[in-house]
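lol forgot to send this yesterday, sorry. struct tokens for the thing we talked abt
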């Protein structure tokens, strides 16, 4: 079993510990209809050449009554009130539009979107996501769908078929927050993934002590052994980047390289660096 950085609480317990969101189902419905969703993009780069290999689309929600709402709260409310499919499809639709704008600006940058376990329990989502991309004239292979490792461990059986179908339709699958769960190699080998995103806590601990460094080295080695693209998250300093190069991690994401930015700013950032 892969070593944990900390114990994972069951989802129900974790949800019970969270404060109530100021956003409710009515506000969510209104926001979906009125354009409360925006996306910010954080580049993923090669640690050896710092060239962008993609960008993660991060949810931003601005409510006219209560102001900014955290992505975690938005997702929680959407899951609780049965609107998570609508929200995920809206995020993907915006990402498709933004990628089209990037293409017109001369940048063919793959985009990653987060998906919920709730989305993956309904096989209809596969056709709907595929249609969103191909009807816009784009290629599903340019889109990565990120799923959190701990949630997969809790309920893989109910979502594995959807993941396989999405992969067969051309989408790339990424395992997000890798290392926060108890994934074994056998578990990972069942998944149709092509990317592992190492949780930022591995990077933080590796900069503090030898044990953390050993954990990070093991995580990178396992991902490489499984022929995954290994991406370290939360890379904030030049020293973090140097350590990743030393340990053989090829890709990274974090403030050291770029903060999340709107799509138009991403196009400018790309033109200045590439």
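and heres what i got for the seq, position by position
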């Amino acid at each position: 079993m892969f070593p944990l950085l900390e114990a994972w609480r069951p989802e129900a317990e974790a949800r019970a510990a969270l404060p109530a969101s100021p956003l409710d189902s009515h506000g969510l419905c209104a926001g979906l209809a009125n354009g409360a969703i925006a996306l910010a993009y954080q580049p993923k780069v090669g640690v050896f050449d710092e060239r962008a290999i993609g960008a993660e689309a991060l949810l931003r929600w601005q409510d006219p009554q209560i102001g900014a709402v955290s992505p975690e709260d938005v997702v929680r409310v959407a899951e609780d009130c049965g609107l998570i499919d609508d929200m995920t499809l809206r995020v993907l639709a915006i990402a498709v539009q933004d990628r089209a704008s990037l293409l017109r600006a001369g940048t063919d940058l793959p985009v990653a979107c987060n998906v919920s376990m709730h989305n993956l329990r309904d096989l209809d989502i596969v056709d709907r996501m595929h249609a969103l991309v191909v009807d816009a004239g784009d290629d599903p292979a340019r889109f990565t769908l990120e799923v959190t490792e701990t949630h997969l461990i809790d309920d893989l059986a109910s979502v594995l078929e959807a993941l396989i179908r999405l992969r067969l339709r051309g989408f790339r699958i990424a395992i997000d927050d890798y290392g926060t769960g108890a994934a074994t190699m056998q578990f990972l080998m069942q998944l149709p993934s092509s990317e592992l995103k190492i949780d930022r806590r591995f990077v933080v601990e590796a900069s503090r002590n030898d044990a953390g460094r050993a954990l990070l080295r093991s995580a990178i080695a396992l991902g490489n052994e499984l022929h995954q693209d290994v991406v370290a998250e939360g890379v904030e300093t030049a020293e973090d980047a140097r350590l990743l190069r030393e340990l053989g991690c090829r890709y990274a994401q974090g403030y050291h390289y770029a903060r999340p930015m709107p799509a138009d700013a991403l196009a400018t950032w790309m033109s200045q660096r590439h």
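The longest strand covers residues 52-63. anyway ping me if u want another try
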